[in-house]
Amino acid sequence: MSNSKPKIGLASNKNVRDNYLTKNDLKKIETKFDFIWGEFNEESSWDESPTTIENVKNDFKEFCKNLDALIVSHGSPYVDIDIIKNAKNLKFIGELEGDRFSQRIDLKASFKNGINVVDTTHGSSYPVAEWALALSIIGLKNGGYHFRKMINGEISFPDNDRTKDPGFIMGELWERKVGLIGCGHIGRRLLSFLKPFNTENFVYDPYLSRDIADIYEFTQTSLEYIMSNMEVIICLAPLTPKTKGMIGSKELNMIKSGSILVNVSRGPIIETDALIERLSKKDIIASLDVFDPEPIPVDSPVRKMENVFLSPHVAGVTKRCQPRFMSIMIDELDRFFSGHKTKYNLSDFTISNRKGL
To answer: Are 247 and 271 in contact (CB under 8 A)?
Structure first.
């Protein structure tokens, strides 16, 4: 029986190599595995697969040839059936940062050839869940309105009467009814953050196993119920053909006066014109990290709305995310080559979700 270490390859650009792989993680992966890095500089996109010219593909094929496991990230060419068939020992493919849709990997070909495929993009779920919680509280406190007043040198309560301020009326998260639209890694982490606030939680997610509701103590329900009955509505759904424009005039007009709408997922899930029209009624508050289009046009009415708090799509962008993607991946490699089940597998379900089936 061979005592050789599994051969692990990282295919990426230099930025990934320098910023995602810390000295400690490099030492960890080199201790347990025979690790190599291959520099590739294909154009990256979360929405489209890389297009690779023949000579680069040949270099990539040679790089993967003797690997037991391949990690891909920004810069990597597409892992197609030719790459897979040529890599006779390949048992594991990992995507470091692919927005859970893995545009760099032919999943069907991987599954057909018995390859275990994982994605550690959810490493960015940590700060997104934190910001979703923060935006909920900011909305409940009417923070956008008060911030605008303060930076403009104006007084929030000119008659010294706070009682009409939504931040006075709604200003606590404690025991509120909270609705999540989507409950993947971000949603589950957010649910753990909501526990100390004793909130009553509801979730709309047609792809979710019913067992999850029992584990995380929420009620699974319809989108209509979320939009009509929640005090805080938080959009966490991925952008797919099925979710694009999912929340339009009909859904937005279901929201009760005084409610808070938070979006930390993707702007196109909520129809822009319908959102602006609903917000113009001034009876709800929105906390938006995402919008459609981005950046928000300088002449967009949403920039001046006092019942809106805006941030420029920063929820999942932190320095700590990048090395976290890699450290989670190393843990997955350790599990796999120790004979255990990996946690963060891509699957047929992922393909269905991506296509909105």
So the answer is: yes
Instruction: Tell me if the bond preceding 77 is cis, omega within 30° of 0.
Output: no
Task: Give this prediction's pTM.
Answer: 0.93
Residue for token digits 């959810």?
Answer: 122
Q: For tokens 């594991």, name the residue.
A: 92
pLDDT in tens, 257-304: 999 999 999 999 999 999 999 999 999 999 999 999 999 999 999 999
**CB within 8 Å of 139: residues ≥ 6 apart:** 232, 260, 261, 262, 285, 286, 287, 309
pLDDT at 1: 40
Whether 190 and 205 have beta carbons less than 8 Å apart is answered as: no
Angle between helices 321-337 and 23-32 (to 10 degrees): 10
The vertex-314 CA angle with 313 and 315, nearest 5°, equals: 100
Residue 176 near residue 199 (C-beta atoms within 8 A)? yes
Task: Using the structure block, give the residue that is written with the tokens 């990996």.
Answer: 342
Question: Domains in the chain, please, with CATH?
Answer: 7-119+319-355 (3.40.50.720), 125-310 (3.40.50.720)
Which strands sit side by side in the sheet containing 308-310, from one edge to the other? 219-220, 200-204, 177-181, 232-235, 260-263, 285-288, 308-310
First and final C-alpha spacing in the chain: 45
1, two tokens: 């029986």
Task: Identify whether the C-beta of residue 92 lies closer than 8 Å to the C-beta of residue 116.
Answer: yes
